[in-house]
Amino acid sequence: MDTLLVSRMADGRPEIFASVQGEGASIGTPSTFLRLALCNLRCRWCDTAYTWDWTRFDRAASTLPLEPAAVAAAVLALPPRNLVVTGGEPLLQRRQLVPLLETLRAAGFRIEVETNGTVAPGPAAHLFDQFNVSPKLAHSGNEGLRRIVPGVLRAYAEDPRAWFKFVIAEPADLAEVEALREAHDIPRQRIILMPEGTTAAALAERGRWLAEACTREGYRFSTRLHILLWGDRRGV
User: Fold this and answer.
1) What would the pLDDT profile of 153-203 be if each residue is shown by its tens digit?
2) Where do the domains of the chain lie, and which CATH numbers do they carry?
3) What ranges in the chain are assigned the alpha helix state H?
């Protein structure tokens, strides 16, 4: 059976932990998190670059290959029965995820996945209860990489399980969100805008004008609850 490449925490343990969902449609929900390694994008403000940037981080020290049964045991040992599969880009390992997700669904888990929206869920599609899709805007960087894949994005837009979370750095980003919404028929009521930032001060400064924009335009607003509570740390 194929292994899953899991991110390691600073102490070497796999990054599987219990907390509350910090952002998006399920904010505040007690959740078990599984962070997978690897990503196909290179966002300049990424706060989990240790899952993919091997120019800055040692791959062997930052990742851990685990059998699905071992991952399932670690997840089952934690109390929340809402699983958030995150990364990196977790759907790069969609085939390897299938046996794990089948086991956890049989155990009564509700399962979310956080994705950048460039990768279709493929054989794992039916095993997710919620897709947290976060298409990357121009300010993310990603020069030379395909950060928007129209066919994949439109398929998510047609799936009622999908919510769309856009990271907003400047007021000008709102026009790009609106253009993507129109081009890919994304339902306005399933769009969430979240301020970019890894400090409480940055989230507050951007959050004030962004919340006003959400009120005006009919989008949902999300902060980053885990940053406000614990700061920019792993495993929370």
Assistant:
1) 999 999 999 999 999 999 999 999 999 999 999 999 999 999 999 999 999
2) 4-164 (3.20.20.70)
3) 59-62, 68-76, 94-106, 150-157, 173-184, 200-217, 225-230
Q: For residue 50, how many other CB atoms are within 10 A of its CB?
A: 24
State the amino acid at position 1 in one-letter form: M
Say which residues have a Cβ less than 8 Å from residue 40's Cβ, sequence separation at least 6: 89, 92, 116, 118, 119, 145
Q: What is the distance between the terminal CA atoms of the chain, rounded to a whole angstrom? A: 30
- Residue given tokens 């599609």 in the structure block: 125
Partner residues linked to 193 by β-bridges: 166, 221
* HEC-encoded secondary structure of 134-180: CCCCHHHECCCCCCCCHHHHHHHHCCCCEEEEEEECCCCHHHHHHHH
d(CA 93, CA 124): 10
Nearest CA to 231 out of 44, 22, 9, 11 is that of 22
pTM for this model (two decimals): 0.97
Give backbone dihedrals phi and psi of 179, rounded to 5 degrees, phi first: -65, -40
